[in-house]
Design a protein that fits this description.
Layout lengths: L1 H15 L6 E5 L2 E5 L6 E3 L2 H9 L6 E2 L2 H7 L10 E2 L8 H6 L4 E4 L7 H4 L5 E3 L9 H15 L3 H25 L6 E7 L4 E5 L4 H8 L3 E2 L10 E5 L10 E5 L4 H9 L1 H4 L2 H4 L3 E4 L8 H17 L3
Parallel strand pairs: 3-6, 4-5, 6-7, 8-10, 8-12, 12-13
Antiparallel strand pairs: 1-2, 8-9, 9-11
Helix pairs in contact: 6-7, 7-12, 8-12
Length: about 300
C-alpha cells in the first residue's frame, strides 16, 4: 500500500510539474527564462506588434496606433488595445497600469530597458542594423517570438505559406513580362527633390530578389535599410521600372506630375513607374509577403 501511495504521489507531481516549470526563450541578447508563456504582452515597436498579431496574439498595448493604421496597415490592430504614446518615449504610467506579463522592445527602446524591467520582464528583438539581413532577422525573430507565446507550429505554417506565395507571385511576373524579368528601383519620396532607396540589407531588396527581379539602383547596407538620394539620381534608370510606396496623396501626385524634372525621367516617359500599395518596409516576417504582393500588383498594372 505504501508503494502504491508513493507511486500515486509521484504521478501527481509529474503531471503537475509543467505548470510550474519555466520556459527558455531567445531574443537578440541571448537566452532567458520565463515562468510560463505570457498572456498580457506589450509591444513597444510596430514590427513587434505585427509579429504578435500574425501569431493570433493581441498585445495589450502598442505605441502610436493612429500612425500604425496609416503606415503599417496590415495586420490591423483590434479595438481595445491601449495606445502608449510614441515609440521612442512610451507612456510609462499607462504601460505599468496594464500590468503586462512581458514587454517586447526593439532598438528605439533599448536605452529604456532598465526602466521597463521594473514593470515586467523585457525581451529585446533587433531586426534592423547594417550588419545583418533585415528579412532573415525578421523571420528569425518571428520564430523566437512564436516560441515565447507557444505558437511555433503556426509560425512555421505561415512561413511555409509565404514561401509558396513568393513562388506564385514570381510566376505571375514571369508570365506578364514574357520571361524577361525587369530591374526595379523600389523607393519612397522624401519630398519633391529627395527620395529613399532601399539598401541591400532591406526587407524590400530581399523581396525583389525573391520575386526573380533585379535591383535597378543597388545601395550599400544601412541601419534601417534605406539610403536618401537626390531625385536626379533616378535618371540613371534607363530601361528599368520605378515603384514608389504610399501613402502618397493626390495633391502630392498632382505636384509631382507637373514637375518637368520628373516628366523628363526615362522611366516616366516609358510608362515604367507606378505607386505601390502602402506597406511597412520595416516590419515583421509577414510584412515581407505584403511587400511582395504590393510590388507585384504595381508591376502587373504597368506590364508591357
Amino acid at each position: 500500500m505504501k508503494t502504491f501511495f508513493k507511486l500515486f504521489s509521484l504521478t501527481i507531481a509529474l503531471f503537475s510539474l509543467p505548470s510550474f516549470a519555466s520556459i527558455t526563450v531567445t531574443d537578440s541578447l541571448g537566452q532567458h527564462q520565463l515562468d510560463s508563456h505570457p498572456k498580457r504582452i506589450v509591444a513597444l515597436n510596430w514590427d513587434l506588434a505585427e509579429q504578435l498579431l500574425e501569431l493570433d496574439v493581441t498585445p495589450v498595448g502598442v505605441p502610436n496606433i493612429k500612425d500604425y493604421t496609416t503606415w503599417v496597415v496590415k495586420p490591423a490592430i483590434p479595438e481595445g488595445v491601449e495606445d502608449l504614446g510614441t515609440r521612442a518615449e512610451p507612456n510609462m504610467q499607462k504601460l505599468a497600469e496594464l500590468k503586462p506579463d512581458l514587454i517586447l522592445a526593439a532598438s528605439p527602446q533599448k536605452d529604456l530597458i532598465p526602466r521597463l524591467q521594473t514593470i515586467a520582464p523585457v525581451l529585446y528583438y533587433q531586426t534592423y542594423n547594417a550588419d545583418q539581413n533585415s528579412a532573415k532577422a525578421a523571420i528569425e525573430n518571428f520564430r523566437n517570438i512564436a516560441a515565447v507565446v507557444g505558437k511555433t507550429d503556426l509560425a512555421e505554417q505561415k512561413l511555409n505559406a509565404m514561401n509558396q506565395r513568393f513562388a506564385d507571385l514570381k510566376s505571375q511576373l514571369e508570365t506578364a513580362f514574357n520571361g524577361e524579368m525587369p530591374s526595379v528601383a523600389a523607393m519612397r519620396f522624401g519630398n519633391q527633390t529627395s527620395i529613399y532607396l532601399y539598401a541591400s540589407n532591406s526587407t524590400t531588396d530581399y523581396v525583389i530578389h525573391q520575386l526573380g527581379l533585379t535591383t535597378a539602383l543597388p545601395q550599400p547596407a544601412k541601419e534601417w535599410g534605406i539610403v536618401q538620394k537626390r531625385i536626379t539620381d533616378l535618371q540613371h534608370i534607363k530601361d528599368g521600372y520605378v515603384i514608389y510606396f504610399g501613402p502618397f496623396s493626390d495633391a502630392q501626385k498632382a505636384k509631382l506630375n507637373k514637375s518637368m524634372l520628373w516628366k523628363a525621367m526615362p522611366f516616366v516617359r516609358n510608362g515604367h513607374v507606378n505607386e505601390a500599395e502602402s506597406v511597412w518596409n520595416y516590419g515583421g516576417a509577414m510584412s515581407i509577403q505584403y511587400i511582395a504582393e504590393s510590388i507585384t500588383e504595381s508591376l502587373l498594372e504597368i506590364k508591357p
